[in-house]
Write a structure and sequence with these properties.
The protein has 184 residues and is α+β, with helices and mostly antiparallel strands. The chain has three domains: 48 residues, no CATH class; 58 residues, Single alpha-helices involved in coiled-coils or other helix-helix interfaces (Up-down Bundle), CATH 1.20.5.2650; 62 residues. The protein has two helices and four strands; from the N terminus they run ββαββα. The strands form two sheets. Strands 1-2 form a two-stranded antiparallel ribbon. Strands 3-4 form a two-stranded antiparallel ribbon. 2% of the residues are buried.
């Protein structure tokens, strides 16, 4: 109950301003009191209950929703759409923008175009194709790696065999030379 900022010691319970990382953790945070004063420049309010009289430009004005939902599942939920049958792209809120542009001759020209948000998490045919291609590529990489590993192991085993044969031939040659020396 203060009109300025105070430093409060927050304890274990989770509050909007404080999230304890461990059990029993405490932290001092700088917080503004709940009493309004002349130092405030903006107050965020929400009308919870409408009274008898209208507040000018607040409760007597109907403001359309400028920005609609962006995520595909939220759009479906808002308009109660079926996932398989309805196309989400038709239900995105488009904003009309009118601009006056001067053309090459210097005349004012009205230009009207529409803006809409990019739908997030939208699964289209293109996305399905891309996902399939990525999966196929991953499988192909795995197969080629397996084949290369088999080739490598075959090469190594052949190299080991040749090395053993060379060592055996060398040993036999050394034994023959030793035997020839002892007979002399």
């Amino acid at each position: 109950m203060v009109n300025g900022r105070v430093r409060i010691l927050f304890k274990g319970k989770r509050v909007t301003l404080y999230r304890p990382r461990r059990v029993g953790m405490r932290r001092r945070r700088s917080v503004r009191g709940c009493i309004c004063g002349p130092d405030l420049s903006v107050i965020m309010l929400r009308v919870v209950k409408q009274g008898d009289k209208d507040i000018d430009k607040v409760t007597n004005v109907d403001k359309p929703n400028r920005l609609g939902r962006k995520r595909a599942s939220k759009i479906r939920k808002t308009f109660d759409l079926d996932k398989k049958l309805d196309d989400v792209r038709k239900y995105v809120i488009h904003r009309k923008i009118e601009k006056t542009i001067k053309d090459a001759e210097g005349n004012d020209k009205e230009r009207v175009y529409y803006k809409a948000p990019k739908i997030q998490r939208l699964i289209t045919e293109k996305r399905i194709r891309r996902k399939k291609a990525i999966k196929n590529e991953r499988v192909n990489r795995w197969k080629t790696t397996k084949e290369q590993k088999q080739k490598y192991e075959k090469l190594i085993s052949q190299f080991v065999k040749e090395k053993k044969a060379a060592q055996k031939a060398e040993k036999e040659a050394a034994d023959q030379a030793k035997a020839a020396k002892t007979t002399e």
